[in-house]
Amino acid sequence: MATVFPAQSAMSIEAPVNRAVEWLNVHYGDTLHAFSAWLLQTCLVPLESGLRALPWWLVLSLVMLIAWHATRHLGRAALLVGGMALIGAMGLWDKLMQTLALVVVATAIAVLIGIPVGIWSARSNLLRNVLTPVLDVMQTMPAFVYLIPALMFFGLGKVPAILATVIYAMPPLVRLTDVGIRQVDAEVCEAAWSFGTTRWQLLVGVQLPLARPSIMAGLNQTVMMALGLVVLASMIGARGLGEEVLDGIQTLNIGKGLQGGIGIVILAIAIDRVMQGYGVDQRTRNKRIQATKAIAEVSAGGHRDGR
């Protein structure tokens, strides 16, 4: 027989939380709706319309150029372009552009908030101690929970999906920006101070460049988490590849759901490889290039000796 917890100790946060949300909606509802309209009309709609209007061959050419510039490897760049072309061949090109626009806008907002907060946290132990439990809650709270207040404040559509994605995906960027700046060698900073460097010059010229691999890793995780939320976002009106998966679930159409899932995976891999390429610092990249050249020279010399 199941035991029952004492009824006199029962408590619930349901009523006070609902009252707080209702108060915010009553007093700031117009402001929130104005912000929703501004974000939609200024950022998301122009970007999505622009991506959907571009010829497919131009988009693939841009992907090829960006992938090659990030990885310096023609074969990998061609493979990523082939994956993107496969999404188009499955009839999902338009949905791909919608998902890409949603992820780009959400990531841009996360960067505008997350990197400054991470820099501030790196300079203040007090702020870091306050932020740590907040980021833990943001990162571990089920994503469905973020959709509830977003729906109440903004209604159905892409704006609540973007804001829920930002809240869910931003913590890794804040954490790794903080960690990257804190791990910059203190002797390097002291040397910069000895030359009369200002705090801004130290940040822009020394700390951020040296912390770039860590920041790019945080950005990479943020984008991956944003892509992981596109299926849930489709439940509240955000279209794109997530809508394809949701339709497959609702109609028990395994092929359709798998097709949308493959599109999301390919997009995630393409973004991940580009982010990883830009996250490698220049010295490491130069060492890899020199090592590759040395191996090629040794291999060529071996072939000549064999002849």
UniProtKB/TrEMBL annotation:
Topology in the lipid bilayer: Multi-pass membrane protein
Main subcellular localisation: membrane
Superkingdom field: Bacteria
Family named by the database record: Belongs to the binding-protein-dependent transport system permease family.
Annotated ranges, domain ABC transmembrane type-1: 96-275
PROSITE patterns, per database record: ABC_TM1
TM regions (residue ranges): 54-70, 77-93, 99-122, 143-171, 223-241, 261-280
GO molecular function, one term: amine transmembrane transporter activity
Annotated protein name in UniProt: Glycine/betaine ABC transporter permease
Protein source organism: Pandoraea terrae
GO biological process assignments: choline transport; glycine betaine transport
Keyword flag Transport: yes
Range of residues in the leader sequence: none
Family annotation (Pfam families): BPD_transp_1 (PF00528)
